[in-house]
Structures are given as C-alpha cells and as structure tokens.
Write a structure and sequence with these properties.
Layout (H helix, E strand, L loop, with lengths): L1 E7 L5 H15 L2 E6 L4 H7 L5 H10 L1 E4 L13 H8 L4 E7 L12 E7 L9 E5 L2 E4 L5 H17 L4 E6 L7 H14 L5 E6 H10 L6 E4 L1 H14 L9 E3 L4 E3 L18 H13 L3 H17 L13 H13 L2
Parallel strand pairs: 1-2, 1-3, 3-12, 5-10, 8-9, 8-10
Antiparallel strand pairs: 4-5, 4-11, 6-7, 11-12
Helix pairs in contact: 1-9, 1-10, 1-11, 5-6, 7-8, 9-10, 10-11
The structure holds 1,4-dihydronicotinamide adenine dinucleotide (NAI).
1,4-dihydronicotinamide adenine dinucleotide binds next to loops.
C-alpha cells in the first residue's frame, strides 16, 4: 500500500537531516509517496512568503507530514512559522517521547517519559501590545475547551500506551485563574480515568525533580510554554536536542518533527545528528499503522548507537550526517 505524506525539509540543518530520514525510511521498505513543500527562508525566496498556502493544502490532503525545523527571527519579523502551522492545522497536542538511548552518554538514566504539551494557546497566543512606550502586555489565553482537550489526549495516550501515571504541571499558585482553569479541567478528565495514577507538580519543582529523578516520571501534561522549556530540559537528560522526536497531533492531521531548531551554528557542515528526525519518522510510521517498520527503524538506529563506531559530533563521534544515515539504513535492512 502506498502512503501519501507531506515532506517539509525546512531551514538550516533541515534539508540535511531530511535527506538522512528519507534514506532510512527507504530501508524500511514502506511505500511512501511524498509531496515536498517549502517553508521558512527557502519558501520566502521562492514564493515570497514563509508559509505558502500549498503547505496547508498538502497536509490537509495527505493528513500526515514529516517536518524539519524552520527558523523564526527573534523580536520583529514574521510570526513563528511553527506556531502558525500548529494553530492553523488544529494540531493541538504536542507529543514528545523522551527515552534513554543505548550507547548515548547522558546525565539521565533509564528515562522513559512523555511530554504532552498544549499547542494552541497559553502564552503562545501571540497577542501582545504596547500599552504606552516602555510598557508591553502579552496575553496568556487559557480556555476550558483546550485544557480539557489536552488533558483527555494525555489520559487517553497513557491508557492506550500502557502508561501508569499522568503528572499535571502548572503554576496555579501564582497564575490562579489561568493555570487554575487548566488544573480544574485536568482533574475532571482524571475522574474518568481511575486506572491511571495522577499527581500535580508546580513547574519549577517539576524541573528540579526531572533533573534529580527523571526515571520517576511517566506522562506529563502541561501548557504551551512549560512544555517548550521542559522538553529541552528533558532532551538534555538523554543526550541533547539531536535525539528527541516529536509529533503535533490534531483530530485528523499530524505533523512529525524533532524538538530541535535549525541549528544555525552547524547548518551546511554535514554534522547534524538526524536521530531526532529518524525517531520522529518512526512515530509517523506508527501513526500510519506501519508498526513493524517503525520497530525495525528503532532497532536499527539503536543498534548503531549502541555499537558506537559511527556517531555524530554531538554524541562525541566524527561521522557525518550522511555516513550515520547510511549506517543506520544498512542496520534497518538487517533489523
Ligand atoms: P537549536 O535547537 O536550533 O540549537 C540549539 C543547539 O543544539 C545548537 O548548538 C545546535 O547546534 C544543537 N543542535 C540542535 N539540533 C541538533 C542536531 N540535530 N544535531 C546536532 N546538534 C543539534 O535552537 P536555537 O539555536 O535556539 O534555534 C535556532 C532556530 O531554530 C531559531 O530560529 C528557532 O526559532 C528555530 N526553532 C525551530 C523549531 C522548529 O522548527 N520546530 C524548534 C526550535 C527552534
């Protein structure tokens, strides 16, 4: 069976790691027909906009995309391409499985947790204004509907993936109304899932406990900004941004992408670690119902990482993105 899917290579290291992912996906034998669309700086050059309408049309057509990172200028300039894609396509749940990998030396041991981040509102509403010169307000928007939806996603995910516990992360002691509403909705959803253990943690304490005992965490659900920050913290626990995958999921559409950005400091050098995008591609295969191929991809990748002879610079090796991808592709064929 042929699966149609959208490919968004993106900016910076995006095209390099996308080529690597295509090579490894090819080795799984799954028949994927890609619609390749531009986003970010390349799209601006070619189409005069960072987000061509064709990107949305393609994802709505294929319902599934593999995406590289896209740059967003700090301060002025256009709105974040990534936030706009998630909001426009209704990809309300951001899923980030964080797992210790064999052969990867990292501060955390036996980590196997999943961050579920609300993707559409919170402090990423993009609503900011200057009240008077020198005073700016940014609005944190929290709705009961979006809070309930993300809580339901987290509990359903926990149940369907054999997870034991959901931790709600918040700062309701200070943001009593906004984070308070998030907690209220999460507690209501929790009552429908008595089989799943539940606890609540204030975000700063959660950050400390994640560093000290990451193996004690299972599924964590939280609003947009906390999820953004804690995802990077958790990536650091298992070997860095090069190894953590992600998925943005809505009711009918899904976009799979790594946690990391465009890595401008190493873009074009052939040094990028494609592992995060490869693991995102494995999530995409799972989503398409190709569980065996996804498992083969993970097995092949883990074999290469465990062996350690071919690894990228961020993991202490010297291999190029291309050599690493070729080695993983060969391992996947034999997995
Ligand atoms: P970054 O994730 O691009 O880089 C942070 C550090 O991690 C850099 O030292 C980089 O070399 C390293 N790194 C990241 N991915 C790596 C990989 N696969 N292999 C080896 N090393 C890797 O974060 P930064 O510098 O804050 O952001 C750069 C740009 O990326 C910004 O324009 C930002 O807006 C954008 N961005 C895009 C995201 C997306 O498209 N989903 C997510 C995060 C940032």
């Amino acid at each position: 069976m042929t699966h149609r899917a959208t490919l968004i290579p993106g900016d910076g290291i995006g095209p390099e790691i996308t080529d690597a992912a295509l090579r490894v996906l090819d080795a799984t034998g799954v028949d994927l027909a890609w619609e390749r669309v531009d986003a970010g700086e390349l799209a601006l050059e070619r189409h005069g906009t960072v987000l061509p309408e064709e990107l949305f049309a393609s994802v709505r057509r294929t319902r599934v995309a593999l995406k590289g990172p896209v740059a967003t200028p700090i301060g002025g300039g256009h709105r974040s391409v990534n936030v706009t894609i998630r909001q426009t396509l209704g990809l309300y749940a951001c899923l980030r499985p964080v797992r210790s990998l064999p052969g990867v030396i990292a501060p955390g041991r036996d980590v196997d947790l999943v961050i579920v981040r609300e993707n559409t509102e919170g402090l990423y509403s993009g609503i900011e204004h200057r009240v008077v010169p020198g005073v700016v307000e940014g609005l944190k928007v929290v709705t009961a509907a979006a809070s309930e939806r993300i809580a339901r996603f987290a509990f359903d995910y926990a149940r369907s993936h054999g997870r034991r516990e959901v931790t709600a992360v918040h700062k309701a002691n200070i943001m009593k109304l906004s984070d308070g509403l998030f907690l209220e909705e999460t507690r209501r959803v929790r009552e429908e899932h008595p089989d799943i253990a539940y606890r609540e943690l204030i975000v700063d304490n959660c950050a400390m406990q994640l560093v000290r005992r990451p193996q004690d965490f299972d599924v964590l659900v939280m609003s947009n900004l906390y999820g953004d920050i804690l995802s990077d913290l958790c990536a650091g626990l298992v070997g860095g941004l090069g190894v953590v995958p992600g998925a943005n999921i809505g009711d009918t559409l899904a976009v799979f992408e790594p946690v990391h950005g465009t890595a401008p400091d190493i873009a074009g050098k052939g040094w990028a670690n494609p592992t995060a995008l490869l693991l995102s591609a494995a999530l995409l295969l799972d989503h398409l119902g190709e569980a065996e191929a996804a498992a083969a991809l993970r097995r092949g990748l883990e074999r290469v990482l465990a062996d350690g002879a071919v690894r990228t610079r961020d993991l202490g090796g010297e291999a190029s993105t291309e050599d690493f991808a070729a080695t993983v592709a060969a391992a996947v064929r034999n997995a």
